[in-house]
Hints:
Blueprint: E1 19-21, E2 31-34, E3 39-42, H1 50-60, E4 66-68, H2 74-77, H3 80-86, E5 91-95, H4 96-101, H5 105-122, E6 139-141, E7 146-148, E8 153-158, E9 167-172, E10 176-178, E11 185-186, E12 192-193, H6 200-213, E13 217-220, E14 224-225, H7 231-254, H8 259-270, H9 281-304
Helix pairs in contact: 1-3, 6-7, 7-9, 8-9
Amino acid sequence: MSSKPFGSDYDRFEFPCRIDRVTAGHGGEALLILGSEKNALLDCGMAYCGPKTVNNILKACSSLDYILLSHSHYDHIGALPYIREAFPQAVVCGSEKCSRVLPRENAHRLMKELGTAARDLYDPDSAEEIRTDGLSVDRVLKDGDVISLGRETITAYETKGHTDCSMSYMLEPVRLLFTSESTGILEGENYIHTPLLKSFSQGLESLEKCRRLNPEYICLPHFGMLPAAFNSKYFEMFEQECDSKAGFVREMVSEGLSREEMLKQYIKRYWKPEKLEEQPFEAFEINSGHILDALIRYIGESENV
């Protein structure tokens, strides 16, 4: 991903209100929303940089009231155990499905495995333990639930597609929408990655939900702020890329390729070395298999309509 896709003067982490980027390493963002009365952290970033993330939060504020989870993946919640320990009063908020996923033993095992791969890639000299204790949700959020920070509010919206537990958040009154990965990740001005691991149909439904919210500003996961003039184009590009990926997989299905052969072709087409800035290849490979399966199901659904 180009760090300056909208020109050398564009700052994708310049926010329209009091938000500090407290991200402490590659792979996952952590954004601190400073309210008039209370503070909220949106996602936590990777486990390997958990202590540094805590230090960044403490530099910006002395108290943390809420931790909002966009979904249950290791690059978004890895540092949660460290942040919980530093701010035991903070209420962890996430979807109902997220609350059920986090306690699972296999989820912890996968988070530790991928978290270790990320630590070894991004901070190979680190001996930081990859912890998975304290991975839980205190307050389950449903679609439309509101959290007050004082004069500011945050409304939660279920946006499935990337996962079944994905949520987006609208910060009012500034009308800043923090989208989930269900509506894509910008990787340059001309390409949007569509990481729909569970359902392309649900991803497109989530896109329509976000579009109807008519946000003034959009903050994308793994990217940052979109220029406001780019909002509509972004939504259009997401739809076009979903169609493009479906067409690519439809061609492979018609050629009679096996799933293994299709996965190799998918990775060959979409893997780029610069993606290492955001995720280890192991994670990309696992996700690619899920995306391929979701595309195959989506094509089957379309043909049965």
